[in-house]
Amino acid sequence: MTPIISRETMQKEILRLNSISKSFPGVKALDNVSFSIEKGSVHCIIGENGAGKSTLIKILSGALQKDSGTIVYEGKEVDIRNSHQAKELGISTVYQEMSLVPSLNTVENLFLGDELTDGVKLDKSRMIRKTQKALEMLNVSFDINIPVSFLNTAQQQMIEIMRSVIFDRKMIIMDEPSSSLSQKDVSELFRIIHFLKEKNVTIIYISHKLDELEQIGDKLTVMRDGKHIKTMDIASMDMSFVVSLMVGREFDTSRRPQKRPADGEIVLEAQNISRADKRVDNVSFRLHKGTILGFAGLVGSGRTELMRIIFGADKFAAGSIYIRNKKIEKFSTQNAVREGIAYLSEDRKNLGLLLGMSIRKNMTIADLSRISKGFVIDKKQEKQQTDTLHTKIHIVTPSLDKLALYLSGGNQQKVAIAKWLFTNCEILIFDEPTRGIDIGARSEIYSLMNQLADAGKSIILVSSDLTEVLSMSNKIIIMHEGKIIKEIENDINVTQETIMQYMLGGSRNV
Fold it and tell me: Model pTM?
């Protein structure tokens, strides 16, 4: 039932969401989300990974369409079918990942798809004048004639905001805009936000940094598990209360991981690992044989970037990696596999499996040498070894010769695990292993991880699900903005709230 809204309230609002829902296979990303946003305000949205923030942004920007519910914009119900329609309504989005064309200059990027003409040809002089006027209005300065690839991150982000100013957007959505900025650039961004607010532009600001929200925000909406939890005035909010709302769900303390020796052989050691862009910044840790080491952190914390470095998929600028006390001089994915490291990517459909190939082929593709004689596959060996893995991992399929494409998400994940077990790996990195998986398959994967650890395999678990981290990990490492901010032995005294506090940047925030 749609609530009755007074005329006065409608005049104050620019946006009202009524029971917005969106589902993907195996996941309900948004579940009857309802809240409103006032004109000319800075409305902040916060929530842990998977809360539904990104899906909501994409629906408002026209990149995705809602399954149900209504969007009321400036007092009228609208159906935002694409990005062009969002622009026509006056809605623009500044994404965390820039959408600029690197080889084009500022003017060309600003008017790409919205070029001005004099009726016959491009009116370059008018586009340049509008660009310069936007620079003056925002009180910023940089060379608009060079390719934007030569500009720094803050300047590139400013181009995204300039686009909103030039085309008189009424609402700007900013997705983690400060994640790659220096403190000086963040201060400049906040100055621009205050300026836009004075011009009655509405800002939707997505961030995990609670101290930022206090500086610029008027209202705060907390989301969790695809639901709207609470909207409140930022001036009167209590940080501890916000953290409890973000976590929300109860954790069964009896689901702690089984005890494993914490002083066993060190099978992997990272020393002072850094990427050139500081998304991983001076990270050091140790993984012990037969244990499960959990990594927690919000989007942008550097968890996946660190795992890709360890697997040799990404380069690192400084630091060293040791496998069983041997320093690895030239790190690559081939070397990582040779050293017994496996990586189950969070994107199993695109990076974990070849969906157009059979289940059996997927299971053996990581190490064909084990079933080959020269360049010829030994079909008997292939069948024998994959059948053994099939039984061990309980992949639900009538035949391993079926395409991996037709398996459920949980069974696809089992195939990805089987692929790496086929290589006789000793170190397994599980990056979001149960994302988009039903509860039954999730339980089976947890059981398999415990069996592997008990058999002496060593596991790194990267997960956005705090109950998963708490119930599976012997030790928990928490990352924030590329750094390890805390390392905790998992015991009964460790709570979801404790971890979330550090994920948000440390106990100073609560």
Answer: 0.69
* Predicted confidence band of residue 209 (pLDDT cuts 50, 70, 90): confident
Rounded-to-integer distance, Cα 470 and Cα 499, Å: 9
Residue type, position 163, single letter: R
Q: Report the alpha-carbon distance of residue 201 to residue 169 in Å, rounded.
A: 7
Q: What angle do CA 445, 451, 455 make, to 5 degrees?
A: 145
CATH number of the 254-509 domain: 3.40.50.300
The residue assigned the tokens 């596959």 is 377
Q: Would 7-247 and 254-509 be classified into the same CATH topology?
A: yes
In angstroms, the Cα distances linking 129 to 109, 134, 217 are 15, 9, 32
Three-state secondary-structure class, residue 283: strand
d(CA 148, CA 130): 18
Report the distance separating Cα 454 and Cα 396, nearest Å.
24
**Domain boundaries along the sequence of the chain:** 7-247, 254-509
Select the highest-mean-pLDDT range: 54-63, 172-181, 202-211, 258-267.
Answer: 54-63
Is there a contact between 213 and 220 (Cβ–Cβ < 8 Å)? yes
Determine the Cα–Cα distance for residues 447 and 450; give it in Å rounded to an integer: 5
Contact 33, 52 (CB under 8 A): yes
> What are the DSSP E strand ranges found in 40-134?
42-46, 68-73, 76-78, 91-94
Distance of CA 469 to the CA centre of its chain: 17
Question: How many Å apart are CA 475 and CA 374, to the nearest integer?
Answer: 44
Q: Which CATH superfamily includes the segment(s) 7-247?
A: P-loop containing nucleotide triphosphate hydrolases (3.40.50.300)
